[in-house]
Design goal:
single chain; 176 residues; mainly alpha; Arc Repressor Mutant, subunit A; 2 domains; 3-stranded antiparallel β-sheet; two-stranded antiparallel sheet; 51% helix; 11% strand; globular; disordered N terminus
């Protein structure tokens, strides 16, 4: 059983819930990290803690992530930790089995459909942005309409001045 879309669902939808890029970020962050806590995910991505906490709650409700139990955590389990073992001072999260299966189903074909559903020519736009310094340079590679530029800002891919955000850089790095 795959965690992918069922027939009739929009790309980027999971059981009828529209997954935003920030949801994907938390999922792929946990895939790379093993386990982590909200404050660290916010720090690494440059996103507000409140937003990450809301996303975590969404993903908990969907059953894609779960709380990690125990009082200590080893580096082998938390791959982003520098110490061999740390005592937990936060609530740590990890992918559930269902979340693991869903993240494994995310491939280039899935990503193309997902980004194309977010905004017109989305896959080409995010690829151009990833390969460029900023949105202006990306606009020389692919046409970026005003509505698309506004959507890139709303999704926190670019700043008001058109620079790529740390969130976009990390999301793209983790999706590759």
């Amino acid at each position: 059983m795959s965690g992918g879309n069922t027939r009739g669902e929009r790309p980027g939808s999971y059981r009828g819930f529209e997954l935003l890029p920030v949801h994907l970020y938390v999922l792929v962050h946990l895939k790379k990290a093993g386990v982590d806590y909200a404050k660290m995910m916010a720090k690494v991505s440059g996103l507000p803690l409140e937003l990450i906490e809301d996303v975590i709650n969404d993903l908990l409700e969907l059953g894609l992530i779960e709380r990690d139990s125990g009082s200590a955590i080893k580096r082998s389990k938390a791959r982003f930790k520098k110490a061999f073992e740390v005592h937990k001072h936060h609530t740590y999260y990890r992918l559930s089995r269902e979340g693991e299966l869903f993240v494994r189903s995310i491939d280039e074909r899935w990503l193309k459909r997902y980004f194309n559903a977010l905004f017109p020519d989305g896959w080409r736009v995010v690829n151009a942005l990833a390969e460029s310094r900023d949105v202006r340079e990306a606009g020389r590679k692919v046409q970026i309409e005003d509505e698309t530029l506004e959507e890139l800002r709303v999704l926190r891919f670019v700043t008001e001045k058109g620079r790529k955000t740390e969130f976009f850089r990390r999301l793209w790095e983790f999706l590759q």
